[in-house]
## 1
Amino acid sequence: MEATATGVQKLLEIPPASAIALEMTAEHYFDAVQGILDVFAPQKKLDAVYVTATIPSKSIIGALTTLEVDLTRTRFVDCVSRMTMGASERDDRAVYVESPTMLETVLLKVEFLLRKLGGAEAVVVLDSINSLAIHNSPRVLSEFLLMLTNHLRARGAYTFIFSMEEYASEEIANILNLVTDDVVRFEGP
Amino acid sequence: MGSSESAAGRNRCLTGIDGLDNILYGGLPRNNAILVTGSCGTGKTSMSLEFLLHGAEEGEMGIFVAATEPPEKLKENMMPYDFYDPQMLEKKQILFIDLHELYKKAKTEAPEIDQKGSEALIKAIVGAVRSHGAKRLVIDSITSICARLLTADLIREFIRGLSHALAQEGCTALLIAEVPAGEHRYSPYGVEEAVVDGVILLGNLERQGDLLRTLQVVKMRGTTHSRAKYILDLTSVGVLLAPLLKGGG
């Protein structure tokens, strides 16, 4: 699947229940996080669930808070902090998964947060397939993503799966082609 | 009647646990007695409390017969649920009965229960169900009763008699069985699973150093059902289930 270049405004044209692979370089990583949580979700009046397997939720929350991003309708599934023994300070906006190998638990935590947020339309961000690929085999990762995207499609939710170009591989490209509706190259706000 | 036909036709008792009702294609067949079995910490009591809470939401009175934990502690365990309403207890939509009260009523307080005592205990349990109009019953645990019954035959007859009598009352029951950790069997005495209408097996799965809770419906008379293993999470919105990833080893 050929990736088309886009920014946040273009993402707003994506229809509900879509699963999109968002390819980006590290340079545009934070633009993508902010773009989805500060522009995409509020404009579409969506709850947001952010699954982080890359950096602790505390770091993301801290950075977004500094930028005065409203996180009232955003919750985090943190797959990093427990693994690194760094979740002694818990944040009410985050639930913690002990390890990024517990993929079924990630599914359950996403569902839990969507229910806790009140069942409105939602966007789920998975950050990132590259980080999950460090801990999981391509086979189980494909199975997990297929289950997650289909579950969220059935709910009418948007799914964005981050893929970092610096860590791209043919295997990851194949998985993304299989589980997503489109692969989009994110090139800034 | 084929099993799929009976699944469509038979009246269902929704557990309110979405994942489980989906696995059972619409809930437990009403009036069944189901063995909920597993080792400690697998979620048997939590799941059963949720079964009663959702029943109360639907206007179905439920009784929890407690042998292993004091009723006060069980009530506290209900409070974190988002769908818990104190009025459910105040209005006696859910009633906790200490098993020892039923032993007293049946005059079966001695450590061993014979045939006569077994029949009296069934009468006491069913009497409580009838007098409160209960549509849902949890016995936590049936193992503690079985431990007092003298032979495997008595255990078989007790569970069969109780199941039959509860069905006559229009009551759907969860009978909790405690299995020692690490043992691959459905019940401590080996006869319970043969007599009941269904078996829900809760367990722990260790994978790459992670400990996951699992649920599997092993048997359910009167309905088709998934026999796959699911991962279970106990949350304040209730039990959540996700299919076990097959590539996960």
## 2
Amino acid sequence: MPVGEHWDLSVRHIAYHAIAAALEEAGADQVDALFVGNMLSGALLSQEHLGTLIADFCGFRNVETAKIESACSSGASALRVGHMAVASGMHDVAVVCGVEKMTDTTGENTTAGLATAADAEYESAHGVTFVGLNALIMQRYMYEFDVPLDGFAGFSINAHRNGAHNANAMFRKPISLDTYLNAPLIATPINIMDSSPVCDGAAAAVLVASERVGDYVTGHHPGAVQILASASANDTIALHDRRDPLFLEAAYVSSQKAYVESGVTPADISFFELHDAFTIMSALSLEATGYARRGEGWHLAADDAIGPNGRIPISTMGGLKSRGHPVGATGMYQIVETVQQLRGEAGEGQIANASIGMAQNIGGSGATIVTHILGS
Amino acid sequence: MSIASLWRTRQQRYSLEGEICPECRQAIFPPRDVCPHCSEAAGPLHTMSGRGEVYSYTKMFNVPNGFLAQRPYTMALVKLEEGPMVTAQLTDISDEEVEIGMPVEMVTRKLREEGDSGEIVYGYKFRPVFAAGD
């Protein structure tokens, strides 16, 4: 499902679109559970009970459904619930769909809705937004590590360059350094080219226990992709309570858990779909997952070590910046794109010899971080 | 925030009432049931001095509902001298003078013109500490 401003479609339509495509591709003829990752349906659409709403619209009856919410990491959290459901043997076939409809209301309402991921009484009540929280991190980071104003430009330029090849991306146009430098400020020092867009989207996957793939899915993709690791960790909800506001401790912990579970190291990973909701998050994510020392994550962008042929390619299909960030759906877009890369179906954006991919989805200002490692 | 929530948090918003952990002696704001530093039961209440310094700041141009009339405004992370950090607006300040490390003090200001139910919300903001004679 392309990310964009889908004023002609409702949340149920875009979710169905993604789920139908996933079922068709997998060739699955049985669904035992539907887990929906979503953050804002209650706040922006006055619609909760999304699991059953979408199952109903898809024609599923007598299946288990639930909406899974963990702010912007809702998509990956839903995948993790689906993973636990099939890995435990509790369900044979689980469908996971991340979906978000952010353009049905005004920009101010969406901004206020996103701010509910922070501490309502001690952050949002004072007028801070998610852009504001990330700006507070970025300002301090630039101060402590002496980063120039264009130090983060490479993250945005890389994302747009890669997103140009992704049919599902919202912005399919490369940007220049000049475009970045002249972009309007939204919360100093964050400009509009540091920030991912408000948009609608839905992405889905079918999960079956590895050893029983042949029993349930008959798709034309014999090389089903395997979840090698799934891990999640939390930190304080409020940015101001972090032990170190410039270190994503939950990203460190969840990626370390995932490395141990899968037995892979950062050097084994072919590409990394990180949570570039803001360019500062790319730098912090690379530092927390073992690709850069503290305060040096931005060097990777400046040196273009993050490009398709770089040491660690990131945002290979455009990331949140170019593909778009329909918040509760983002974690599942990351997974779909990781699968495309591992199957060699990423077209012009294909990473050569991609065999292991990592996806990391962040809720709030670093409060919930979910890491998945997938292998072909 | 609802009227009930505004009433519950009034001592925090009007006087920065937090706690000092009886086990590890660390200051906590706002009050919690469990100390985030040592995981023992938190308490007793302790009112912060209101003095601190700017850890980081941002001038916000895109703002949520309820704050449109004040746009743009400067948000800060303020490190209180007792230790806890708070998120708050800076006030009585010009753009040029804001910098990391700047000493600030708490003042009570109107946070929002009106909330969802029409109430006016007051709470803490921070302003620069002026040297005597300024």
